[in-house]
Amino acid sequence: MLFANLNLARACAALAVLASTLYLNVRPVQAQSAVALALLAGQSPKEGVPAQLQGEAWSAYAQAVQRNWKQYHSQIGQPMQAWAGKQIPAFQKTVFYPFSGPDFATVSQMFPQAKRYVMVAMQAAERPIDLTELKPEAARQTLEVLTGAWEYYGRDGFFVTEYLDKYLHKNRVRIGASTFLSSFFQLKGLKVNSIAPVQINATGEVEELPVSDANWRSVRFRLERAGEQVVVDYLRIDLSDKGLSANPQHHQFVRQMSAHPVLLKAASHLPQNNSFSMVAASLTSQAPFIIQDETGIKYGQLKENFGLTLYGRFERAHVAFGSYQRDLAKAFAQGKDIQPLDFRVGYFKGGNYALIVAKRKS
């Protein structure tokens, strides 16, 4: 996903200190403790905030997470879920979210009754950070970095991918997607029962690995939501044609997941690029239902296979993506039954936001 810019100087300075001071205990993780989850969500656990976290850095972080989550929920999350309740069928099994990043908030709001969420992105999951395991100075620096990651979340509804990459690759700690996913689960009131590293096996199935495995590129969270069991699989997969061709098991997995309802959001128009033709073909040939912004499947491809309903307003792609989706812009300009959209979604384009709901033709 492509995201808005953060303060580069501040982020890089914090990351430099973090790289030299951070200490992370890598003992096996069965499930995150209630204390660790609360702290990642900027909440004070009933046991109290550990001594090494107390101070200005913790206060700033807690306030940033709570303030931005409240803003996000009221301006984006709540209206999005209300819209989805009226416009999207209540799918109760598996949903597929390729090009997702750690954006659990959106997929869970669009499909609030799903029992399994399959998210695919390029960022590695890694072990979720446990702030209670960090030395005081390392904890302070970590909180500063994570505070920066939340700065624009309330307004934009996503984290900044380029900085997620920096957190992952420029530090010994490797702040991966699982840390942000854990924050979302806590903020949305889901109980984390377990987390384990996973991989796609030779038959294209997800298999769990020992928690002592050193490579936590992909993870499976087992959750509980209002007494019901929910699984979130976050998988690091290169969805390009080159990546899928080099890993046939990944291609098989994508084909299998494409038979489920699909969400595409802020996908950098990659599904419209010739170098991502394999994933686009799987989705257009198999998905029973797709909800996407303008960055997903080409409008012309969707129109061939799906009945379409357009929401919001679309005149042109974000300036970073040139002339993508001109036929979609024409459809919005000439359409007589464009439906309203009252929340922000995807890239900022002069205040214009669009969604397409695609139901496969019978």
Question: What features would you describe in this structure?
Answer:
The protein is of the alpha/beta class. Helix content is 39%, strand content 17%. A six-stranded mixed beta sheet has the order 1-2-6-5-3-4, with helices on both faces. Helix 3 (56-87) packs parallel to helix 4 (104-110) and helix 3 packs parallel to helix 5.
What's the topology here?
Blueprint: H1 8-21, H2 34-40, H3 56-87, E1 94-98, H4 104-110, E2 116-121, H5 136-150, H6 153-156, H7 161-169, H8 177-187, E3 191-200, E4 206-208, E5 218-225, E6 228-236, H9 241-246, H10 248-257, E7 262-264, H11 277-286, E8 289-292, H12 299-305, E9 306-312, H13 326-334, E10 354-360
Parallel strand pairs: 1-2, 2-6, 7-8
Antiparallel strand pairs: 3-4, 3-5, 5-6, 8-10, 9-10
Helix pairs in contact: 1-5, 3-4, 3-5
